[in-house]
TrEMBL record:
It comes from Caenorhabditis japonica. Gene3D superfamilies: CRAL-TRIO lipid binding domain, GOLD domain. This is CRAL-TRIO domain-containing protein. Pfam families: CRAL_TRIO, F28H7_8_C. It comes from the Eukaryota. Residues 99-265 form the CRAL-TRIO domain.
Length: 420
């Protein structure tokens, strides 16, 4: 297996050859704003954790990068300006605690990022914003963090990442948090961001001042995670300082963690009062929802064709988590059917996300600017035991004749008043 290129060093000649090989193998377009050697190499590093043969490493790095490039396009992540932490709604609403990314680094050129977790409340997020919003805001957060790392790599010519130190002092467990872990939701978010789309970007994550009970959800989460989880997410009790000092100067550690930098400040999350939890705003929509079930290991494919530019709007609720996304087939050449659909052969136009629309219903829209066939897909392939109940409404507004039609779950449509 090729040697992993260490953080704080330029890419080796062998690493550069592997980067060029991956670049030559990808089939998705890669934007110049993202196409750096270091960004491609991060996917190679992730593949090296699970594979030893060079051909296997190249194959899996190429596949992972192709998948990430699809998300980049669907989420418009290659835009010039990505919202900062100040502009990201998840921090504006104080749903997550916040710490600033410092310009200081550890001895391996990794930018320092400290945060205090005592005030985080998972239930506030789950009851306040849509699951798709939570995912989108975190994509923007990770993209902003990537831009910071890219700037550091541009300045130094050396591989960088974020050295994340999380102070767990005062963090308390509750039944909702345990459900968040045991249901696989925590594992999904970790997999989606830390391993699939932004591998080797935030590493290591040193969780310090942990209580003994944290080992229980940690071990549970670890069983659901890929190789490298325990190397990336490291637990420390109150005797953590010597570990940090191996690679971080004491002048660059906040005073709250025994260091000498009093300028490092934190912003607490604010718990949402239950009276401010999401509630139905449009009863007419709820009364018009069409119900269907998605069986275990099954999917629901709503297929429709567009001939003129149109706007698609949708609303749905579920009784549990389900994968949802929208794909563009174009000229109807892939022979996708209700019983068999190949997502890899289609363009992802709305991100493929696992979301639960039970506490907060889903509502969003998409501009359909190209004629052709589109697929709205609900997938329960991850569940072996429970089918999913979906309550669904969608409408298509045609720009050419200003007509509005309701899209039904069987792909047919009927004239309707605009409800969304």
């Amino acid at each position: 297996m090729p040697a992993r290129n260490p953080f704080g060093q330029p890419l080796s000649d062998d690493a550069k050859r592997m980067v060029n090989e991956v670049r030559s193998n990808i089939c998705q377009p890669i934007h110049s704003n993202f196409n750096t050697e270091f960004n491609v190499y991060r996917f190679i590093m992730a593949a090296e954790r699970s594979h030893k043969k060079k051909d296997d490493i190249i194959k899996h790095a190429t596949s992972a990068l192709n998948n990430h490039l699809r998300y980049r396009k669907a989420l418009n992540l290659d835009t010039e300006n990505i919202p900062s932490f100040d502009e990201n709604p998840i921090f504006q609403k104080k749903l997550m605690p916040r710490g600033e990314i410092l310009s200081k680094t550890d001895s391996k050129n990794r930018l320092l990022w400290y945060i205090e977790y005592a005030t985080i409340t998972v239930e506030s997020i789950a009851h306040s914003i849509r699951g798709s919003e939570a995912c989108k805001y975190q994509f923007l957060q990770f993209e902003y963090m990537l831009r910071k790392v890219m700037e550091q790599e541009e300045r130094t010519g050396r591989l960088s990442s974020l050295r994340h130190v999380v102070d767990m002092n005062g963090y308390e467990i509750n039944p909702f948090t345990m459900l968040f872990v045991s249901s696989g939701t925590l594992a999904y978010y970790s997999q989606l961001f830390h391993f699939e789309n932004y591998p080797e970007l935030v590493t290591p994550v040193d969780m310090v001042n942990i209580a003994k009970w944290i080992h229980v959800p940690y071990r549970l989460a670890k069983t659901m995670m890929p190789s490298g989880f325990s190397e990336k997410f490291r637990l420390h009790d109150k005797h953590f300082k010597s570990t940090l000092l191996e690679e971080i100067q004491i002048d660059d550690i906040p005073t709250s963690l025994g260091g000498k930098d009093a300028s490092i400040k934190f912003t607490d999350a604010v718990k949402v009062d239950p009276s401010q939890y999401w509630s139905v705003e449009n009863p007419d929509i709820v009364a018009s929802l069409e119900g269907f079930h998605v069986g275990t290991r099954k999917h629901k494919n709503i297929v429709f064709d567009v001939t003129n530019a149109a706007d698609l709007k949708w609303y749905f609720s579920t009784d549990g988590d389900i994968y949802f996304g929208i794909f563009y087939e174009g000229n109807i050449t892939n022979n996708n059917t209700e019983s068999g659909v190949n997502l890899d052969n289609m363009e992802m136009v709305y991100p493929w996300l696992k979301i639960a629309a039970r506490l907060v219903h889903e509502q969003d829209e998409l501009s359909l600017n190209r004629p052709g066939r589109y697929h709205i897909i609900f997938c329960n392939n991850h569940s072996w035991l429970s089918r999913r109940a979906v309550q669904f409404y969608a409408q298509i507004f045609d720009h050419s004749d200003k007509s509005c039609r309701r899209l039904h779950s069987d792909g047919t449509s009927t004239a309707a008043e605009k409800l969304l």
